[in-house]
Every structure is written in structure tokens, then in C-alpha cells.
Amino acid sequence: MTRHLHVVGTRARDRLPILERTADAVFANCHQGLRGPYTGVDTVMWAVLPDIYAKWPELVDYHRLEIIEAIPELSALIGPGPVTLAKDAPFAERTRWYGDIMIRCFSQGIITMLREYAQRLRETGAVPPALVFDNMQSAEHTAQDFVALFVRRVDADLWHVLVGSNGDVGPQLAAALAQHADLVEAAPSPETGQRPAAELAAEYIMSDGTSDDPAAYGAYLGLDPGERAAMHDRRADELEPDASWGVKIAALPFHRERGTDPHGKGVETVRAATEYLTVMGFQLAGIAMAKRGRALTDPEAEPETYRMLTSMLISHVLGFGRVDEALALCSEVRQRFPQPLAHMTTSYFVSMAYTRVVRDHTKALDYQNNAVVIAKLLPDERQRLVYTGFQENALALVEMHRGNLSRALELVDTAMRRLEGRLGPDEWVVHRSQLLYNRARLHAALGHDEDAYEEFTTLSQADPYYTDYFTERAKISRKHGDLHAAIADYDLAAELGPPFPELYHNRGSAYAELGMVEEALADFAYVLDMEPEEVETLLSRAELLFGAGDLDGATADVERTLSMRDKDPRLLGPRACQPPPAVPAPGPVRS
Predict the structure, then answer these.
(1) Pairing between strand 181-185 and 161-165?
(2) Which burial class, exposed, middle or buried, applies to 395 when counting CB atoms under 10 A from its CB (0-12, 13-18, 19+)?
(3) What interhelical angle do 535-547 and 551-564 show, nearest 10?
(4) What is the C-alpha to C-alpha distance for residues 145 and 244, in angstroms, rounded to an integer?
(5) Taking a C-beta distance cutoff of 8 angstroms, is the pair 208, 33 a contact?
(6) pLDDT tens digits, residue range 274-297?
(7) At residue 75, what are phi and psi to the nearest 5 degrees?
(8) Are 270 and 256 in contact (CB under 8 A)?
(9) Residue 93's pLDDT is what?
(10) What sections of 138-266 are H helices per DSSP?
(11) For position 588, what pLDDT does the model report?
């Protein structure tokens, strides 16, 4: 059986002779300094997407959201992505962001499409071009994650991949390559003859800082500082007129930060890049860019920019549960800036840290009450109107976590009534949809199923590509025993959104309840294809296989689960009671 290749060499030129042996391969330089997240993946997509769209447009259309949300520039090939409320909202009105989990789902959906394309292509007698992903040690998180998923989910016999690196890649990619790729060591290439320092320095600049040639970097460092800054300016001026968003969040900030106006054009470029990364949900890249922006920004001269960059940074680190870092940043803002908005925002962030991560809801209540009080006292009427509703919505979350569902519902209702008739139809649309969403969830939690169902329906009609509305509505249908209605909503969510593993698990469990074993097994298999360590799905499949008489398959799933969760009483008890050979006990079905 063919395996993928991992070519390891200290420098790109050492790896190149091996990576270039495969004829007609798509060669992708994945260095994040070129275009940030998904650098290299975009190269592959530009190369193969036209053929997929020409041969099987329905395949592209089914995965259109994932493709365009991950790499918006690809709309030039296949047209625009779906319209969503969040994407159309101004940055200042965005109250909902993607996160790292969503980005991983985008990658999963794209890989599903690429694998299906390769299978269909081979059925016609054609072979997809080999894919070369080089400079993986310098690839951004999204590209490393994508390649790790690809080499695990797509057999080398179906689509061959060569990965080039200096050996220092992230743990997930390293594990995937160790399991699915053969290691090839590249011999050091002979040094080339000496070249003029000016030529080498220019080469480093033109590489946008991605060259791994120590001579080029040394020549660059040897430049007169003024001359070096001017060279960065010239390169930035060359890139800017036709820059894609990828260039705007990577190569362009690199040069503007090092040009002659780092605290002017540099800050402006880095702030725009941070906002874009935040909107797109590229959290790790957003953290790095926000830190770069804060380092360039004078908090006394540009307090608004500094606070904005800090707020985005806090939001991102909280998304990863990094509470201590978030609290330290909030404390810095509170000490540095005596403005009401600064204290309102940081009170909100501290409250969210305690209620979402620490789970100390009493302490969260302290800070969120403070945020509400400040919002109600803001001197600007417009800000007071919007921010009071926003902070009361957050307070409702805290009260929900404290178990005070009626109080939470009262807060959301008050926030919604306050806005009625006082905002234009196109103002703060996402915020208002979020209020309705929270009210629907509270109605569902309180057992007001008819109200909740109606509100989820209203939301799904207004913003169908935010597929949580369908899955929430499906919960209500299942509660009332209408599994067919639930499956219809799961089908819509699967068609319109990215492949969330939980969605396919839940649809599979609904199929299982209806006795549709083949359909259930297909959904469980897809979940485990994407995420092999989804324990609940392994248990659910084991139960289904056990009931179908496939004892070997059920045992394999239970054994696999035990290897990850060896003290789970649901497994140890029944397993210990079984006579040899071991027969698995039914696993739970998650709803």
C-alpha cells in the first residue's frame, strides 16, 4: 500500500530535489508569512477547484460555505458564498464570532469534498495530481491542522501527498505524519557561490520574510536601518494595490511594521488585519496579530485603537479558556483607562471568564451587574440604548447559569422591548437575532416548547446558514417524539452548514431510534472518520452493532473507547460481567 511522504530537511532547498521528483504535482509553499491562515491550502484549491466545479458543480455547491468561509478569495472561481447576518454586519456591530472549532469543521468539509473528487476522478480512469505541502514548520495552525486531517482521512493510494518540513511541526501534524507517512531525510545541499550582499538582502525582502537562507537574512540585517525601512516601504507599496486578504493579513503587515511609518501605516494595517482575523474566527492568528498591534500602538496617543486591539485579544484568549491572561489584560485596561466604556467592557469580559470558564457564577454576577450599571449611565443616548441591551443579555446568561431561568427570560424580554421601534431595520441585526436566539433557548429550557419552536423557525428563516437554529429546533421535535421532523432539520443543517460532528452524531442516533440501522451507521462512521476519538459516537455505534449481531465490530469500538477512557463505568461494569469472549454492553445515545 502506498503511503504519504514526509520529507525532512533543514532548509527548503535541501528538500526541493525530493519534493520536485513527482511530475505534475501541485506545489504549495505553506509559510504563513505569505498569506496567513490556510497558506498553501489556498494554492491547492486554486489548482484543483476549477476542475471540480467544471465536472461536478453540485459537489462544490454542497461545500460552498466551507470553501468561501475558509478562503474568501476563491469566490473568484466559484462565485460568492452564502449570505449570513453576521457576515453582512459592520465590524462594530458584530456580536458573534466563529471559533477554532468552526474553522476545523471548514477544513473537514473541504477535505470531504476533495476526497469525493478524487474518488470520482479515479472512477473515470484519471488520477489527481500529487500535492506538495512545503515549509510546514512555518505554516499557520489552520494549514497544519488541514494537512494533518488530510493525510489521516485520505489514503495515499487515492491522493498522494508529500509534506516538507525541517522536522519541527506541531504535535497533531507530527502524529498524523508518523502514522500515515514514510519519513525521508533530505541531504544538505551544497552551498552556492557567494553573492553580493545587496542581492541577498533584496531576496529576503522579496520573499516577504519567508526565506530560510541564513546568508540572505544576514545581509538583510546588515543593511542601514533607513535603507532597510525604505525597502520595506517599496515592497509594501508593490503589494498593496492588488493585495488579497491573505496578503493583507500576512505579508503587508510584515512590511508596514518594519517600514518608515510603523506607528502610522503599520498600526493601521495591523489593526485591519486583526479585525479581519477576528471576524473570520482565526483565533490563534488573531492573538498573534493583536499582540503585534499593541506593541506598535501608543496607548496614550491612540487609546481607542489600543483598547480595540486589547478587546479583540481578550476575546480570543477567553475562547481558549486562558482566564489568567484575560483577567490580566482586563486589569491593565482598567488601570490605564478611566473611561466608562473601558470599564463596562472589561467588567463584561471578567464576568464571561467567570461564568463560561471558571463556572463561578456568583462572582460573574458581581462584574456583570457592574457592566449593566455603567451601560445605563452612558451619556450618549445611542450607546446607552444598545449597550444596556447587550449587557442585560450577558446578565441573562449569568442568571441562566445560576439556574434563574425566569429572571434570565425577563432580562432578555426587557432588552428586546427596549430596542423595539428605536433602531432601523438594518441596525444591530446580529445583536437582535442573538437576543431572540437566547429567548428561544430560555423558552425551551422552561418547557415553553411551542414558543421556542416558533422562534427558532423565525431565526432559521432570517439566517438559514447559522444552522444552530435547526439543531435546536430538532431537539424540541425529538422531545415530542417526532423523529422524522428532527431528521428533516438535521438534514437542513447538514446541507447548509459545515460538518459538525455533533450534528451527524445526533442525526445518527435519531436514525437508530427509528430502526434505520444503515443510515445511523453511515452517520456514526462519518463522525469517526472526522474525529476518531469521539467517545460517545463510538459507544453509540457499539450499541447499534451489538444489536445487529456484529459482536466483533461492537467489541472493537468498546476496546477503542476503553483505550481512551479506561475508567468509564458504563464500559467496565458490563465488560467485566461478560463471559469470554467479551461482548460489549450497549453504549449511550447522545441527544
Answers:
(1) unpaired
(2) buried
(3) 160
(4) 22
(5) yes
(6) 999 999 999 999 999 999 999 999
(7) -60, -20
(8) yes
(9) 75
(10) 141-153, 171-180, 197-206, 214-221, 225-239, 245-248, 251-258
(11) 37
From residue 36, alpha-carbon distances to 147, 205, 286 in Å are: 15, 17, 10
Distance of alpha carbon 367 from alpha carbon 274, whole angstroms: 27
The confidence score (pLDDT) of residue 577 equals 35
Residue 484: CB atoms within 10 Å:
10
Residue type at position 153:
R
Whose cell is 421556542? That residue is 452
> How far is Cα 123 from Cα 489, in angstroms, rounded to an integer?
33
CB distance 113 to 62 below 8 Å: yes
Q: How far is Cα 533 from Cα 104, in angstroms, rounded to an integer? A: 15
Query: Residues with Cβ < 8 Å from 7, sequence gap 6 or more?
Result: 15, 18, 19, 162, 163, 164, 165, 184, 186
Phi, psi of 421 (to 5 degrees): 75, 0
* Cα separation values, 517 from 98, 158, 166, 188, 201, Å: 34, 28, 47, 55, 64
Beta strand spans in 243-385 (E): none
User: Is 130:89 a contact under the CB 8 Å cutoff?
Assistant: no
Longest CA–CA span in the chain (Å) reads: 80
* Contact (Cβ atoms closer than 8 angstroms) between residue 48 and residue 26: yes
**Bridge partners, 473 (sequence order):** none
CB 204 within 8 A of CB 223: no
Residue 385 carries which side chain, given as an amino acid letter? L
For 142, how many CA atoms within 13 A lie in the half-sphere containing its CB?
30
- Residues written for the chain: 591
Q: Are 259 and 236 in contact (CB under 8 A)?
A: yes
132 SS3 class: strand
Q: Look-up: residue for cell 535603507?
A: 227
Give which of 416, 370, 426, 410 is closest to 390, Cα–Cα: 416
pLDDT mean over 542-559: 93
CB 406 within 8 A of CB 369: no
Q: How far is residue 282's CA from residue 144's CA, in Å, rounded to a whole number?
A: 13
Chain centroid to CA 493: how far? 18
- Give the closest residue to 78 by CA, choosing from 102, 62, 99: 62
The predicted pLDDT at position 76 comes to 96
- Record the cell numbers describing residue 304, joined without a space: 481607542
Cα–Cα–Cα angle for 294, 298, 299, rounded to 5 degrees = 80
